[in-house]
Amino acid sequence: MTGDLDATSQAIGRLQVSVEKLDLAVERLADRLEDLQRLRWLTLGGLMVLSGLSGAGAGWISKVMHLGG
């Protein structure tokens, strides 16, 4: 009986460690997603500036904005 409790306790401990690792991985993923969103908007802004400098039509810009949203 005591052996079963020890094994169960160890399994619970391993599960807690796994959950903590998963929490950290989810946090890192959320941070990376935020970084990608920022990069997306910076890229879109850069494209808009370049298209404005090159004289591209407003239609192209509106298409890019629609695809970006």
Give an overview of the whole structure:
With about 70 residues, this protein is mainly alpha-helical. It has one domain (about 1-69). The chain has 2 helices and no strands. The chain has helices at about 1-55, 60-69. Helix 1 packs antiparallel against helix 2 (about 60-69). The longest helix is centred in the middle third of the chain and has 53 residues, at about 1-55. It is rod-shaped, with a radius of gyration of 25 Å. The relative contact order is 0.07.
Summarize the structure.
With 69 residues, this protein is mainly α. It contains two helices and no strands.
Major sheet details = none
Helix percentage range? over 70%
Gyration radius over CA: 25 Å
From the spread of the alpha carbons, the general shape counts as rod-shaped
Number of domains: 1
How is the quaternary structure best described? single chain
Characteristic terms for this protein:
membrane, 69 residues, rod-shaped, transmembrane, transmembrane helix, mainly alpha, 2 helices
Topology:
Blueprint: H1 2-54, H2 58-68
Keywords: Membrane, Transmembrane, Transmembrane helix
Transmembrane segments: 41-61
